[in-house]
Structure formats: C-alpha cells, structure tokens
UniProtKB/TrEMBL annotation:
The lineage of its organism: Bacteria, Bacillati, Bacillota, Bacilli, Lactobacillales. GO terms for molecular function: electron transfer activity; FMN binding; NAD(P)H dehydrogenase (quinone) activity. PANTHER family: GLUTATHIONE-REGULATED POTASSIUM-EFFLUX SYSTEM ANCILLARY PROTEIN KEFG. This is Flavodoxin-like fold domain-containing protein. SUPFAM superfamilies: Flavoproteins.
Length: 228
C-alpha cells in the first residue's frame, strides 16, 4: 500500500510535533511526505501536478494542527482547487474512488475536553464531519482520525507509543486489527534484525518475535472478541 501524507502547517520548522512526525516517516517504505507550504511558498498551487500525484497512492492523509476546529488555510485552498468536478467527483470524476482518506490532527488541549461534558462541547468525530462528507463525495473510505493531544506533555514512553500508532495508521490496511498489528511488529523486527550486529541485541529481538508468535492464538481470540 502506498500512502501520501499531505501536511499543512504555516510554521512547520518551529513545530516539535510536526518535526517528530516528519522524522518518523523519513525512511518509511511506502510513505511519501508532502508539505504544502514548502511546495507552494507563493500559495499558487499546481492543480494538475497535485491531481497527478494523487493517482499513485492508495491512502491519502491530511495532517495538520487543529486550528479553530479546522485546517490551516493552505489545506482548505488545496481542497477547493484540487478537488475539481469531472476529476475527483461528478461525471467521470473518479480519481480518488476506492482510496482511503485519513486525518492526523495535532491538538493543543486535553483529550477530555473533546468528550461529553468537556469544555469544547463537541467530539472530534462531530467536528470532522466535513471531512467525512468530503470522503463520501469523492467515493473514498473515511478512516477514524488519529488525534494527537498535547504533544508537548507526552513522556518518552508515550511518544514511542505515538510513533507506533502513527506508522501503523499510515501503513496498515486494517490498523484496528490486533492480528495486523502483530504482523506489523514482526515485520519491523525482521527489518531491525538485519541492521543489528551485536548477538545480544539479536537475541532480544528474536525473543520478542518468538513471544508474538507464541501468543498469536491469544491475539486472534482477542480480535474475535472485539469484532463481536
């Protein structure tokens, strides 16, 4: 699967969260990174180039800071201009049909504020309804957004968990499946093992892989339970 991450942030170099996410995909196979403000510093979007770019990918991700319950103006402009009738919707407009549309949202307030009783009064699902409608209009499958709350307060351990969640969101066809996630971990271990020279490190990696394989039945049973 090929994934295109379309990023919009007016001051991306000053954003710790965006730099963290950018570094995470720097060498990730099957993932391409596209920062709109860097590609078009004058704000003039090459519409045909962007439409041609979209052809090559199975999953499109909009990644942005959640400003005032929406995206930065550059992404809004990109959607207005690139989502052209006869190309992405309407008669003959099937460019994005069958592809996935996902959102990676960086949010400055606590997660509890976007729940029932929270200060924001609306959930992320409610506030991203326009993107759900967009996916429907374009014949795309809308993915549950990956919301990153208060990145600057995350511990090292929480950042590592976020890294895994982020990469799985970008690369797994079914990132909600425990079975798929387990196989993803094993694939990552295989890749890492090829880069490790110390026998002790290789032993540790093999031990983790053996643990996953030994517990595959339990993972499958958990998935069956979750699917009920």
């Amino acid at each position: 699967m090929q994934t295109l991450v379309i990023v919009s942030h007016p001051e991306i170099e000053a954003s710790n969260s965006q730099q963290f996410l950018k570094e995470a995909v720097a060498n990730q196979e099957g993932v391409s990174y596209h920062h709109l403000e860097s590609a078009y510093p004058d704000g003039q979007i090459d519409i045909k180039a962007e439409q041609n770019l979209l052809k090559d990918f199975d999953r499109i991700i909009f990644q942005f800071p959640f400003y005032w319950y929406s995206a930065p103006s550059m992404l809004k402009k990109w959607i207005d201009e690139v989502m052209e009738e006869g190309v992405t919707f309407g008669t003959g407009g099937n460019l994005l049909e069958g592809k996935d549309l996902g959102l990676v949202l960086v949010i400055g307030v606590a997660e509890k504020e976007y729940q029932v009783g929270g200060r924001e009064h609306f959930t992320i699902s409610q506030l991203t309804t326009p993107y759900q409608a967009l996916a429907n209009k374009l014949g795309m499958t809308f993915l549950t957004p990956l919301s990153i709350f208060q990145f600057y307060y995350l511990s090292d351990k929480e950042q590592k968990i976020l890294l895994v969640d982020y990469l799985q969101y970008l690369t797994l066809k079914d990132f909600s499946s425990l079975h798929s996630r387990a196989h993803w971990f094993m694939d990552q271990l295989d890749k890492l093992e090829g880069r490790v020279s110390e026998e002790a490190d290789k032993f540790s990696l093999q031990s983790i892989q053996d643990f996953i394989e030994d517990n595959q039945l339990e993972l499958d049973e958990m998935q069956l339970h979750l699917d009920k």
